[in-house]
């Protein structure tokens, strides 16, 4: 019986097709593959994992749904060659976060794994854009840049894209509006030192700090904003305590990043990239609103920040940089 990676590609029509490679067939990787397949994010989805039985089972399960999705093929293998020629490589492999464990606690094991897998990935997919979706994402992204030698534009982390979605969901519920009417970002570390950018947030075109409550909802005063921020920061811990891992929302968040690259969207997203004199912050990977297109992360946007927000961003940078130093970066 042929390996799943030996399944022939669909006949070419001559048009450019897209290939997404996902490294890691765990909860996040397999959910990401499902989300990308259902959304039609790429024409080929390749799943790679060292556990051959696991990756082959995940691929077979996904293939059985192909008649219900946009046209695509799904392949997978324990051989890194399955990622060859990918346009985007998403790395989800890493140490699993346990209840009560911080993302920083995961750094040592995950950085060690990056040293093993990144050289082989770059060999087979040298022109790909790399997106790190493994924790602690900011530290791992910085380490991956150093290990791989890839330019900062083409290797970045998922950052606070998910955190920003969590913030918008909570604000939408508090204000009684649709999530799509809320525009707000979480910046800094994807972790405990992350900050909410209230100064640039808006709801239906109204600056959040000027928002007047609708339908008897409470005002978004400082106390409520602090409460909302705590809810966002604590949400991952609550999910992990209840079911062992976060996977659905991060899978959807990652597909939007992938689509921004593959479709050359020029979308502004708070991904984690290497900063260079961003409000005086350099040589650390942090999330700030950034322009994402086919070239990767091409610009970091200097959004308005209050004194406290800027101080929080600098403190977050120091927190991440301290962890980098612990691992020799």
TrEMBL record:
It comes from the Bacteria. GO terms for molecular function: L-lactate dehydrogenase (NAD+) activity. It catalyses: (S)-lactate + NAD(+) = pyruvate + NADH + H(+). The modification Phosphotyrosine is found at residue 237. It is found in: Cytoplasm. Allosterically activated by fructose 1,6-bisphosphate (FBP). Keywords: Allosteric enzyme, Cytoplasm, Membrane, NAD, Oxidoreductase, Phosphoprotein, Transmembrane, Transmembrane helix. The active site is at residue 190. Substrate binds at residues 97, 103, 135-138, 163-166, 246. Beta-D-fructose 1,6-bisphosphate binds at residues 168, 183. Residues 160-321 form the Lactate/malate dehydrogenase C-terminal domain. The chain crosses the membrane at residues 20-38. Homotetramer. This is L-lactate dehydrogenase. It comes from Promicromonospora alba.
């Amino acid at each position: 019986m042929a390996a799943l990676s030996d399944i022939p590609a669909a006949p070419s029509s001559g048009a450019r097709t897209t290939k997404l490679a996902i490294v890691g067939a765990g909860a996040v990787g397999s959910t990401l593959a499902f989300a990308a397949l259902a959304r039609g994010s790429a024409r080929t989805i390749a799943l790679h994992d060292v556990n051959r039985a696991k990756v082959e089972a995940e691929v077979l399960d996904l293939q059985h749904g192909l008649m219900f999705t946009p046209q695509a093929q799904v392949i997978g293998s324990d051989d890194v060659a399955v990622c060859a020629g990918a346009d985007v490589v998403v790395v989800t492999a890493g140490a699993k976060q346990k209840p009560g464990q911080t993302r920083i606690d995961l750094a040592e094991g995950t950085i060690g794994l990056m040293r093993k897998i990144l050289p082989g990935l770059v060999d087979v997919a040298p022109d790909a854009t790399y997106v790190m979706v493994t924790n602690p994402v900011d530290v791992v992204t910085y380490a991956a840049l150093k290990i791989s030698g890839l330019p900062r534009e083409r290797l970045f982390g998922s950052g606070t894209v998910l955190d920003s979605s969590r913030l918008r969901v909570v604000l939408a519920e508090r204000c009684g509006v649709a999530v799509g009417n809320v525009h707000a970002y979480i910046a800094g570390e994807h972790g405990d030192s992350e900050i909410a950018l209230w100064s640039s947030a808006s709801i239906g075109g109204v600056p959040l700090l000027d928002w007047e409550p609708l339908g008897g909802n409470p005002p978004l005063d400082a106390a409520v904003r602090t409460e909302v921020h705590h809810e966002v920061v604590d949400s991952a811990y609550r999910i992990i305590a209840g079911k062992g891992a976060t996977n659905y929302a991060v899978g959807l968040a990652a597909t939007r990043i992938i689509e921004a690259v593959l479709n050359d969207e020029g979308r502004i997203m708070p991904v984690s990239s290497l900063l260079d004199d961003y409000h005086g912050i350099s040589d650390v990977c942090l999330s700030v609103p950034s322009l994402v297109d086919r070239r990767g992360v091409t610009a970091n946007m200097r959004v308005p920040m209050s004194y406290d927000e800027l101080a929080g961003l600098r403190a977050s940078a120091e927190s991440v940089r301290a962890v980098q130093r612990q691992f020799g970066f």
